[in-house]
Structures are given as C-alpha cells and as structure tokens.
Amino acid sequence: MNAAQVLVVDDNDAIRSSVAELLRSAGYSVVEAFDGSSAIEMLLTTKVGTVVLDIRMPGGGGLAVLEALDEPPPVILMSAFALDAEDHERVDHKIFVHLVKPFHPRRLLDAVASAIGAPDNEPTSPSDTAPIADSSDLA
Q: Is 24 a domain residue?
C-alpha cells in the first residue's frame, strides 16, 4: 500500500482539482473520483492511505461510500452540510475527521498528515490560498 496516496472524491470539478493540487504540492500522490460509485470501485481496486470525501454527490454520495466499505482507510469527510443524527450514528465510526466547508487548506493538510503521515518533502505554504469551498456547496 502506498501510505502517501490520497483518494479525493468530489463531484465539483473545481473543488476536486484544488484539493488534489494542494495535496500534490504538499508531496502526496493523489488519485481522483468524481462520484460515490466511482470512489467505491476505486477503493475496491486501489490501495490508498486516506480518502478525502464529499458527502453530497451523484452516484450514491459520500454516505453510500462509507456504508459500502467494511473497513475503509481513514476518511476525511468534507461538506458544507452537517450529518443528521441518524446518518451520524450509522457512519461516525468510519470518519477520521469531518471538515466543514469552507475550511482553510492547512486544516486539510493537517488532517491528511494525521491520517497517513507527512510526505517526505515540505508542503508549500497554503497561507495565501483561499478557503476550500464552492458557492453551490453552500446553497
């Protein structure tokens, strides 16, 4: 298993690309999926150290991904929405960290480093980077 490989799952191309680029610039290997069903397929065939996962997506969404996997790698959930009590109870034990959008890129880098360790090279400073969010996620 490549412990430094991260799967980024988000149906919003801009968010998925910005998260992937941030992680690549920090030294992580990144693979991407655009919906829940492609994420499940990838997780069944590809070893990753952690998953950065959006909740609301086509193809089942993040909750379907969490429910489909008995023992997922550490999952960093990212969403502008809180989980309702029932969903929280069903999947909470599979969530490593829940980041609420918008969030500062440093929080994501810290969460990934906690999940799988820091990459060999030092990340570029995300201090000048805008928070990760999209107005459609906040609607």
A: yes
